[in-house]
Design brief:
Elements (H helix, E strand, L loop, with lengths): L3 H18 L2 E6 L6 E3 L1 H6 L10 H6 L6 H12 L6 E9 L5 E12 L6 E10 L1 H16 L3 E5 L5 E4 L1 H7 L3 H4 L4 H4 L3 H17 L3 E8 L5 E12 L5 E10 L1 H12 L1 H9 L4 E6 L4 E4 L2 H6 L10 H6 L3 H16 L4 E9 L5 E12 L5 E10 L1 H23 L3 E6 L4 E4 L1 H7 L3 H4 L10 H17 L3 E8 L5 E12 L5 E10 L1 H41 L1
Antiparallel strand pairs: 1-2, 1-5, 3-4, 4-5, 6-7, 6-10, 8-9, 9-10, 11-12, 11-15, 13-14, 14-15, 16-17, 16-20, 18-19, 19-20
């Protein structure tokens, strides 16, 4: 049977093993002696060797310079007997090789019975680099899009708003949280309708869509399109709602102005290359602006003022889908419709068009009119296809070129390799992203290669070096590597493009030639000495005569 102390030791070792297996580093600081104990995982997160000694000053030096003062302040606050002793902070570590990691450190300080000083300070460190990057990317997208973005729990309690909401309404996230604050900012005429539709969606789990007027911080109201979709877990249960509010104020004003003034509509239609159409849904007549003649080549007498004429000029492969879609939008009470299809020109060829329309309803909610615009996007789609073809050609060229090729961002972080790199090294993209290429370099050359590469990165100068790389068979071959900086219009380096050319045979031939030259020089020297000896012997014989 284990003794109590042995049982405790075994439990601690098991706990430590479990923590290490989870990728969590542990640390233990004695504030009285300054002794700092780090687990191997903890040292790994800082890029240090397991045997390396660490103290608190060494810990601070491992942090990013911009984070040191802040982290030290949090540590001192945790060690202050007047506080709770809690410690929770995120910061960046800088390994000796320059690798950055985002980590989160949590811990607690323990004080003496008089609570006069801290006796022990323990905690954990977790690598949150990937989570931080994903969070930053998500936040960048949320803050970049032009809509106001919001989140709620399954019951409709608003928990998050992006910066655009704050900028428009003037309310902070904390002030806006809850179930009613957002509704109070709506125009009085829209509040009850919005509340009813939102309640129905919460109960049914259906998507939410509505147009309403929101009050800005200046006190004015603007029209917005509110959309929300439920986010479900693997069991189909709603765990969150994701919503957006898109400013459509100008669109609404344009539609109102269009309905108020036919003259403005005519003048505007003359000034555009879009084929604008006005469809009277009650009479089935369609009016066109002059762009229908300019863009599609029809003479005025060829264009009939009926919806059937438009139907008849759709590409046969698109007609059923397009006609069904536009009537579905009208019949379901939608306010807008759009589609892309092929439309026949007067010469029999087909143009690729993007068609968008808005449905106008009367006071009873009946669709009575639809106004839209057909935009010829043939050249745009051709250009997009050409771009895709060029990208495919580049990929084919890069993957079939004789060299190993790669591309980095401005900092030297490699984010792309061609197929020949993977075929030769046997690595995967996940293994060699960033600075992972170092794992296939010969250890004897790695430091010098890395130093020289970093110097050229900093200077923005083309880089060239020769060194061995390990293949998938474990053998090393010599490569001539070159990298060129790619700059933007302002002259700033935005990426690097590099290649590795196998020069093993050339290097071996060069070495053979050098050995042959050395042998030849030795033979010439020996022969020269032999001739000098013969000449001296001949002179001696002549002198004796």
């Amino acid at each position: 049977m284990l003794k109590p102390e042995e049982s405790q030791t075994t439990s601690y070792e098991r706990l430590q093993a479990a923590v290490e297996a989870a990728g969590v580093g542990t640390w233990d600081l004695n504030p009285l002696t300054g002794q700092l104990l780090w687990s191997d995982r903890c040292k790994e997160l800082f890029g240090l060797a397991p045997a390396e000694e660490v103290d608190y000053p060494r810990f601070l030096r491992c942090l990013h310079p911009d984070d040191r003062a802040r982290v030290d302040a949090v540590v001192q606050q945790a060690l202050d007997p007047r506080g709770t002793g809690a410690y929770d902070v995120e910061y960046r570590t800088v390994a000796p090789d320059g690798q950055l990691r985002q980590v989160r450190a949590t811990g607690r300080a323990y004080f003496d019975s008089a609570r006069a000083q801290a006796l022990r300070f323990v905690g954990t460190i977790t690598d949150v680099s990937d989570a931080k990057r994903r969070d930053d990317e998500y936040r960048a997208v949320v803050e970049f899009i032009p809509q106001m973005v919001w989140l709620t729990d399954p019951a409709g309690f608003h928990t998050f708003f992006n910066q655009r909401w704050i900028d428009y309404t003037g309310y902070t996230v904390e002030q806006s949280q809850g179930t009613e604050m957002w509704n109070n900012l709506l125009h009085p005429d829209d509040q009850e309708r919005a509340r009813q539709i939102w309640s129905q969606c919460l109960a049914s789990g259906n998507d939410y869509e509505i147009e309403y007027r929101f009050k800005g911080k200046a006190g004015d109201y603007r029209w917005f399109l509110g959309l929300a979709r439920p986010i479900r877990n693997s069991e189909g249960e709603i765990v969150q709602w994701f919503g957006t509010c898109t400013d459509i104020h100008e669109q609404r004003e344009s539609e109102d102005a269009l309905r108020r003034s036919e003259q403005r509509y005519v003048l505007a239609s003359l000034a555009t290359n879009d084929a604008i159409w006005d469809w009277d849904l009650e009479t089935n007549s369609v009016g066109w602006n002059p762009a229908i003649y300019r863009v599609f080549g029809y003479a005025p007498e060829q264009v009939e003022p009926t919806a059937q004429w438009w139907y008849d000029h759709l590409h046969p492969d698109d007609a059923e889908r397009v006609v069904h879609g536009i009537h579905a939008a009208i019949d379901s009470g939608q306010a807008a419709w759009h589609d892309e299809y092929r439309y026949r020109r007067a010469d029999g060829s087909y143009a690729q068009v993007l068609d968008r329309g808005h449905v106008a309803h009367n006071a009873e909610g009946k669709a009575v009119r639809m106004i839209g615009a057909m935009q010829d996007v043939t050249e745009q789609r051709r250009a997009e296809a050409a771009l895709r073809e060029r990208e495919e050609q580049f990929t084919a060229l890069a993957d079939n070129m004789a060299q190993l090729a790669w591309m980095t961002d401005a900092t030297g972080y490699i984010h792309w390799y061609n197929q020949r790199w993977y075929d030769y090294t046997g690595t995967t993209p996940e293994q060699v992203q960033g600075w992972g290429w170092q794992q296939v370099h010969h250890p004897s050359y790695l430091e010098a290669v890395t130093t020289k590469f970093e110097e050229h990165l900093a200077a923005g100068q083309p880089w060239e070096d020769t060194f061995p790389l390990r293949g998938r068979d474990g053998e090393y071959r010599w490569f001539l590597s070159r990298a060129q900086p790619i700059r933007n219009e302002q002259g700033q380096v935005v990426r690097w493009f590099g290649t590795n050319t196998d020069v093993t045979e050339q290097k071996q031939l060069h070495e053979q030639l050098e050995r042959a030259y050395a042998d030849l020089e030795a033979k010439i020297t020996f022969r020269t000495l032999e001739l000098e000896h013969q000449v001296q012997e001949l002179r001696r014989q002549l002198e004796q005569r």
